[in-house]
């Protein structure tokens, strides 16, 4: 089914700020030569464009595109504000890069293998520049058996556990996927993963991911460029190496992660767009998606990227993006995206730079605002029915079976001494009911 119909059904062509944002996110921007677009710029709600840019976490790309265009209709105040956000994000990403390198060195020195997820490493891998992507924390992936020792060394590095949950029996290794740690002095949060996803579904083992890892070099050149304005931590960034997921596993991870959150931030879709032009053996990715139940999320990712960003779909991936399921899942994601989009509101009258008052540029929380597990904005969240629709039938069955096993949340509802943790198995149905009724 053609991806064009997805765009038509979304009715986003009636939203000129969102349409402009999508145009700015494309790699081949030819916006300013379009006469019709130039006339629309005069009526643009620039304050809403800013809100959309911050909501979708794409400030760096939008700022650089608008700065390069240097069009007279773009408010100077908007460019100055975006420039400040861009510079703050660059410093923050360099700080996260330096801290991730420090922690990686610490864990590696004690025999713990570490893979970087998302964050600065992904920015370097896909964009070639850590300043071109935003990130609020550091995500490290280790083998499940290394978790206890890694947790010890995180404490030694000055981090405190945020969750305080007790890991129950052995089910935590496949039912949960990360623990959060916070360094208050540096204001850095680290998520220590032992799995890629939280739903207990099938996924590659750590050993498989490690065997296909890629080397990711820190942005030494950028660190030198910004050293005069950064903290001590940022100045220590060198060209030492860290490891990230291989390109095929990267797509498997990014597509599943975006799908699980309903793609309500365009930043995740831009990651897919940037990955699409890399030298990836897409033919070898297909059996990987089949093996780990990634076909629904993968087809959805390609359908959305092609419709919204004009992403070229690699030939081996076209069949999975053209299915009815991919089309239906893409439309579901568009509904979540639209639910999270800031609504239009009146702005000051006038044209050009006079249309954006200084008071409308409120302090941004886009780079520090904590993100919920599956929100779509406005207090809503993706439905369980949608999450189940992302799973193939055999993986859906395993999901229901896995619900019968204890989880770390059971220890929060009803704490028990470690020697009595086996009681969580018969108590599981009652604790599940207690949580359900507590929500209501």
Observed structural traits:
two-stranded antiparallel ribbon; alpha+beta; single chain; 440 residues
The percent of residues in helical segments reads 40-55%
The description of the largest β-sheet is: 5 strands, mixed
Query: Taking strands numbered 1, 2, ... along the chain, how are they ordered across the largest sheet?
Result: 1-2-5-4-3
The residue ranges in which pLDDT falls below 50 over 5 or more consecutive positions are: 219-239, 345-380
- Residue share in β-strands: 5-15%
Structural shape:
globular
Number of helices: 22
User: Whole-number average pLDDT?
Assistant: 79
**What is the number of beta strands?**
9
Distance between the termini: 41 Å
Whole-number radius of gyration? 23 Å
| Structural class estimated from helices and strands | alpha+beta
């Amino acid at each position: 089914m053609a991806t064009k119909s997805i765009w038509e059904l979304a009715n986003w062509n009636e939203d000129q700020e969102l349409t402009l944002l999508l145009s700015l996110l494309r790699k081949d921007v030819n916006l300013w030569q379009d006469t019709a677009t130039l006339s629309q710029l005069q009526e643009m709600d620039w304050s809403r464009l800013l809100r959309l840019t911050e909501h979708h976490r794409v400030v760096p790309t939008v700022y650089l595109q608008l700065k390069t265009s240097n069009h007279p209709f773009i408010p100077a105040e908007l460019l100055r504000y975006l420039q400040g956000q861009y510079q703050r994000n660059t410093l923050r990403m360099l700080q996260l890069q330096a801290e991730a390198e420090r922690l990686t060195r610490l864990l590696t020195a004690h025999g713990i293998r570490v893979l970087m997820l998302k964050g600065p490493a992904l920015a370097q891998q896909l964009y070639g520049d850590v300043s071109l992507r935003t990130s609020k924390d550091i995500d490290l992936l280790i083998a499940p058996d290394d978790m206890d020792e890694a947790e010890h060394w995180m404490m030694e590095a000055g981090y405190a556990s945020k969750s305080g949950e007790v890991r129950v029996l052995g089910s935590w290794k496949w039912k949960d996927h990360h623990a959060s740690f916070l360094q208050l002095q540096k204001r850095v949060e680290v998520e220590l993963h032992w799995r890629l996803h939280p739903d207990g579904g099938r996924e590659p083992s750590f050993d498989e991911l490690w065997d296909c890892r890629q080397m990711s070099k820190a942005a030494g050149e950028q660190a030198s460029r910004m050293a005069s304005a950064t903290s001590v931590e940022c100045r220590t960034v060198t060209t030492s190496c860290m490891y990230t997921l291989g390109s095929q596993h990267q797509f498997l991870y990014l597509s599943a992660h975006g799908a699980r959150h309903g793609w309500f931030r365009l930043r995740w879709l831009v990651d897919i767009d940037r990955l699409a032009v890399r030298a990836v053996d897409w033919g070898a990715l297909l059996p990987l998606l089949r093996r780990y139940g990634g076909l629904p999320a993968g087809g959805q990712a390609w359908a959305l990227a092609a419709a919204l960003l004009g992403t070229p779909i690699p030939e081996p991936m076209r069949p999975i993006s053209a299915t009815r399921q991919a089309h239906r899942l893409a439309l579901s994601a568009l509904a979540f995206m639209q639910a999270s989009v800031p609504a239009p509101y009146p702005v000051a009258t006038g044209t050009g730079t006079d249309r954006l008052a200084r008071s409308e540029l409120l302090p941004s929380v886009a780079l520090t605002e904590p993100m919920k597990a599956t929100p779509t904005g406005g207090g809503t969240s993706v439905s369980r029915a949608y999450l189940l629709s992302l799973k193939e039938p055999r993986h859906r069955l395993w999901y229901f079976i896995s619900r019968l096993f204890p989880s770390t949340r059971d220890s929060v509802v009803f704490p028990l001494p470690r020697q009595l943790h086996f009681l969580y198995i018969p108590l599981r149905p009652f604790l599940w009911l207690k949580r359900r009724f507590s929500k209501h």
